[in-house]
Structures are given as C-alpha cells and as structure tokens.
Amino acid sequence: MTPSAQTQAAIELLDEVIAAAHGGGAAADTLIARYFAARRYAGSKDRRAVRELVYAAIRRAGEVPASGRAAMLAVAAADESVAATFDGSTHGPAPIDASEIAAPAGVVPAWLAEALAASGVTADQQAALVGRAPLDVRVNRLLVDPATLAAQLGGDAIPGLPDALRLPAGTNMDALAGQAEVQDAGSQIVSLAACAHPGQAIVDLCAGGGGKTLALAAAMRNEGRILAADIDRARLSRLAPRAARAGVTIVETRLLDPKGESAALSDWTDAADCVLIDAPCSGTGTWRRNPEARWRLTPDRLARFAAQQRHVLAIGAPLVRPGGVLVYITCSLLDAEGADQVEGFLADHPDWTAERPDLPAGTPHGQGLRLDPASHGTDGFFVARLLRPC
C-alpha cells in the first residue's frame, strides 16, 4: 500500500468506528482485524501504519467526529506528511479543500469532562487518559521465577510489584503462555487490596476472563479455594484454559444467571474470607487501550453501570464471613462508580466499615484509593476495602 492508500484505509476504518460508536457496534480493534482479514494483500507494515493513523485520529478527537475524513483531516492539520497523502491518487483520499472542517481537537466529550472534573480529575489527568499504554505483565511465580524471566526478556521492574514487568512494545506474549499474563500495573496493584494468602476462601464475583483470579491464585500459592463467577459465558469460558496453562488448580468457575445470582451462590453465604468485586463499569480508566470507548459512553449508560454496581455489591456482601472483607474495584475515575458507590453501601450497611487499602501506589480518594495514568503511570482505578463486623 502507498502512504496515500494507508490514509484512505484509515478514513474508511474511522467511518466504521464512528458508526459503531453511535450504534453500539464492535470495538475499534475488532473492526481493524475484520478490515484486514478481507484484505490479505496488506502486509504487516501496512496494517501497523493504518492502525497508527486510526488511533492517532481517535485520540485527537474528544467528541465523536462527523466522519472518518474529518477525523483524519485533524491529524493532517498537525502532520504535514499525512496532509501530503491527500493527493487524489487512485487509492488515496481526495485533495483537501479549504472549506473542509476538520474534527475539533479535544480529550473527552464535554459532558464527560464536567463529570470527571466534578470527580476531582484535573485537565492534565484527563489528557493522560487517552495517551498510549505500556505493555505490563504479571509474572506467574507458580511456574517461573520473576527475576529469571526479567533477565530473559529485558523488561523493567515496576516499583512495589515484585511480580510485574514492563516489557518493550511488540513483545511476543504467545511464547510466554502460562508464565506471564498481560495485566496493567494498576490492575495488579488493586488486586493486592484483597491481601490474599494461602488457605483462604475467596470469591471473585465479576471474574470475566480471570486476570485477577489468576493473580489471587498466585498470591495464595495455589492453596485454598477460589470461586470465579460471572454472567458472561464467553468471557468466563476463557478462564479454565488460562488457569491450566498457569498451573492453577484451586479455581472453580460458575456461570451465573443474571436473574438468580444470589440463589446460585447460596452455598457461599457467610463463607468467604474475601469477596472481590471488579465491577462492570464505564472503563474511563482504560481509555489508553480503547480510546473510542469515550465516544460510546452516555449519561444513561453511566446510570445503568451505577445500577449494576449497586446490584453486585448487594450480591457480594452476604457471601463475606463475619470479620471478612469485600474489595470493591472499578476501572473508572468517576465518583458515581467509585467513591459514591462505597458511601452508598456504607449507608445501607451501617455496621460495616471502610479500611483504606495499603498499596504500593494510589492517592486517597473518598473511602478508598485512586490510581490514574498521569499520577501513577497505570490505568485508572478506584479501590476500597469494606470490612464486615465479627
């Protein structure tokens, strides 16, 4: 592909991403994969170049652009080499007309900027939410010594996380199956709030694909019990093979019916040393990895997430044994999904107390801690520990 053809491909993909943002379609990564699956002639360098253009345009536009061309015109306005590709060639975009309007530069939609500011997120912190994310991994000490793997891969240690490495972009993770899991440093840090140790009984209530489940199992040295539960069959089905590769044998998976979670978990009532709730949320803290997600979020969708969070807290609380702990995590920096949820829970459970987690990084916020890319070099998270009385 010529540079002009790469730009045109990026415009076509951006049109698909914009349509998906309006209609709840597939994520940008999925759309890019589909696009090139139908265009086998494009080599790896072409795919990489087009992907870079698409994400540069997505990161540059805070509001949903009017079109893929408008989004790419904004990139061209800041990069002469991209502007030069609007040359009207056979497979390239038409020349730029002086009357065309490029998508305005910005960080997030206006309503989200206000919501984030009201949650104490500064303009600099908001801007960092759409930067580039590093490749962080958690080394599985059940199978390999972290220092040994670090020496092999040449990754950088992450302070306070002896099992974490920050690897060069493009590292082949397929060769490390079982030995290391891709997991942002922030995700590893908030997982430590569970204070997991061998012999415990832990429920990972919103386990998904099991990233935090496997981290808990490693902290427990594969001794004890973990119940990994979720309502998403596709995501939960990925956990068993991942656990097998990691040498983890203490995890039981349980698919829940969204209308009958409490009944399905009744055998764990008053039994868990810790219930970890990595709650479904808007993902404002993960925009570095999927920046188009900020175009999909609406006030109504945010309200639905908040309702889901209250729901899972109500399910998880009865599972905690007297004297046990409920760890509440969201990968969001909005108080509606973090600090406010904890305050609401404590108001409904006046005998419970909050204990701020003692973690390698984080800024006190509400009754918990918050991490963000600008302050901590991690994805954005809120985490709190809620203690049930004995």
Structure description:
It is a single chain. This protein is of the alpha/beta class. The protein has three domains: 104 residues; 50 residues, Alpha-Beta Plaits (2-Layer Sandwich); 203 residues, Vaccinia Virus protein VP39 (Rossmann fold, 3-Layer(aba) Sandwich). The protein has 17 helices and 13 strands. Strands 5, 6, 7, 8, 9, 10, 11, 12 and 13 form a nine-stranded mixed β-sheet that branches. Strands 2-3-1-4 form a four-stranded antiparallel β-sheet. Strand 11 and strand 12 form a beta hairpin. Helix 1 packs across helix 3. The chain is globular and about 70 Å long.
The major β-sheet equals: 9 strands, mixed
The CATH top-level class label of the largest domain: Alpha Beta
Q: What would you call the structural class? A: alpha/beta
Categorize the overall geometry. globular
CATH architectural name of the largest domain: 3-Layer(aba) Sandwich
Please give the count of helices. 17
Number of domains: 3
Mean pLDDT over the residues: 95
Proportion in helices:
25-40%
| CATH evolutionary superfamily of the largest domain | Vaccinia Virus protein VP39
SS strand fraction:
15-25%
